Amino acid sequence: MGKALEFEVLHQDSGTKARRGRMRTPHGTVDTPVFMPVGIQATVKAMKPESVEATGAQIILANTYHLMLRPGSDIVREAGGLHEFMNWHRPILTDCGGFQVFSLGHMRKITEEGALFSSHIDGSRHMLSPEKSMEVQNDLGSDIIMGFDECAPPDASYDYIARSQARTTRWLERCIEAHRFPDRQALFGIMQGGFFRDLREESARDIVKFDLPGYAVGGISVGETKEQYIGVLDYAPDLLPYDKPRYVMGIGTPDYILEAVERGVDMFDCVEPTRIARHGMATTSHGRVNIKNAKYERDFGPLDPDCDCYTCRHYSRAYLRHLFKAGETMSAMLLSEHNLRFLSKLSEDIRKSIEEDCFTEFKRDFYGKYYGSAE
């Protein structure tokens, strides 16, 4: 295990647990901490691959659940794998499908075998098991693949979470057995345990024994409060090996990213940057901008004067507002490009601040500008 990925911590910030690292994969090197744009259906929505790359993105995500249902992982395999199929030749991480199955609610049933669910496309019945998740991800050919887990509801009882996280560990063992290409696809384990520290500790002890190339903190950023989120991060990353990449799944706002990095997290992803773009929203260095607002009708300045993205270099807020109000697809394209560049640039600045041992000062200054006053 581990041949498919090499990772090293290059430097730790002198005042926090923030780490500057580097991952090497079959499709290239990734500097960490890193934000990973999400391309659920083998595409980052409203973006061409070259536009995604222009934002500074080093690695993107695709989704096991969605690609299993459409077009089918066998078709992607016949196309030469996901990199060829979607014309993205840098690293790719695929999630296991567990979160999507969790999101189906009453349309799915969890058993020891796996998750039996009804397709959101046509209602057809499917079983997503550890073995099936590995089969699909092996077909896709992504550089990093995730062990199949159950993402339990944030309000689930202690007893339910205890059973769920123990089953996730058993599922991980089955994933390891079913994984066909450990020499070229790095399998990450996922820590579960809800908001119960003893269950998190038990989960971490159990999955670390497998000595996998990397590990994720799962089951947060699923609807809990920010205090609960930070409460888990105050101890959970420390339960995972220092010399392996640590991944928190599903975070994409600047505050959640900064809090995670401060506590030793290396990787994070979220659909939010492109999702909010399609609704006329942008994340800027001075806070969130709703381009629909009437005050931007005659605002001929850039979306974010501190941003170096293509959108901010070429278009005004007034034009972006016009595009959105007119229902033009280009609105989503330009706002998505800005939002992804914003988080890539944030990651670049975070890495620099760690190298210079000034992460705390960077975070304070960022919050001061983003929220209007230092936190």
Could you describe the 3D structure shown?
With 375 residues, the protein is α/β, with parallel strands linked by helices. It has two domains: 6-270, Alpha-Beta Barrel (TIM Barrel); 281-371, no CATH class. Helix content is 40%, strand content 19%. The chain has 15 helices and 16 strands. α7 (158-178) packs parallel to α8 and α13 packs across α14 (329-355). It is globular.
Structural class: alpha/beta
Instruction: State the name of the first-level CATH class of the largest domain.
Output: Alpha Beta
**What name does CATH use for the topology of the largest domain?**
TIM Barrel
Number of domains: 2
Quick check: average pLDDT? Answer: 95
Biggest sheet record: 8 strands, parallel
Which percent range describes the beta-strand content? 15-25%
The backbone outline, from C-alpha atoms, is globular
**Integer-rounded radius of gyration:** 20 Å
CATH superfamily of the largest domain: Queuine tRNA-ribosyltransferase-like
Separate helix tally: 15
Proportion in helices: 40-55%
Q: Which runs of at least 5 residues are low in confidence (pLDDT < 50)?
A: none
Spatial ordering of strands, largest sheet: 4-14-13-12-11-10-6-5
Record field, number of beta strands: 16
**CATH-level-2 architecture of the largest domain:** Alpha-Beta Barrel
N-end to C-end Cα span: 43 Å
Which terms summarize this structure?
375 residues, alpha/beta, 2 domains, eight-stranded parallel beta sheet, three-stranded antiparallel beta sheet
Topology:
Layout: E1 6-12, E2 19-25, E3 28-32, E4 34-37, H1 49-54, E5 60-63, H2 64-69, H3 73-78, H4 82-86, E6 92-95, H5 98-103, E7 108-110, E8 115-118, E9 125-128, H6 130-140, E10 144-146, H7 158-178, E11 186-191, H8 197-208, E12 214-217, H9 226-233, E13 246-248, H10 254-262, E14 267-270, H11 272-277, E15 281-284, E16 287-290, H12 310-314, H13 317-325, H14 329-355, H15 359-371
Parallel strand pairs: 4-14, 5-6, 6-10, 10-11, 11-12, 12-13, 13-14
Antiparallel strand pairs: 1-2, 2-3, 7-8, 8-9, 15-16
